[in-house]
Design brief:
Elements: H1 4-7, H2 11-30, H3 35-41, H4 50-66, H5 78-95, H6 105-116
Helix pairs in contact: 4-5
């Protein structure tokens, strides 16, 4: 069994990480480099993961459309459908990719049973 305490970053590492974020932000500001420029140049060339889809695609779309930061704040059907429809439209028009149908309760039960094995 893996020791959970060993795997987690320490408070000192957390402080160092956040200090680094601030130092980099300060350097970019000192050099007159806006976040718009940084994000324009920052191209992430990696395979898609569910985490990346959630954090880099779904949540920004959700926040811009509904002003809600967390997926836990979404109303059951109508808000999820609005975001899904906008995402599906974007994927089709810009990438020529269709989003898979949104999973039904039956599909979720199948996946949970499949994951248990």
């Amino acid at each position: 069994m893996i020791d959970q305490k060993q795997d987690k970053r320490t408070d000192q590492q957390n402080k160092a990480l956040h200090l680094f974020f601030q130092l980099l932000a300060d350097e970019l500001n000192r050099e007159g480099k806006s976040m718009s420029l940084v994000l324009q140049k920052f191209i992430l060339d990696a395979p898609a993961t569910k985490y990346m889809i959630k954090e880099l695609v779904w949540k920004p779309l959700q926040e811009s459309m509904l002003g809600k930061k967390s997926t836990t704040e979404l109303l059951k059907k109508e808000e999820i459908d609005k975001i899904y429809d906008a995402l599906n439209k974007f994927m089709a028009e810009e990438l020529e990719v269709s989003c898979p149908p949104f999973p039904s309760l039956e599909e979720q039960s199948f996946v949970e049973k499949y994951d248990e094995k």
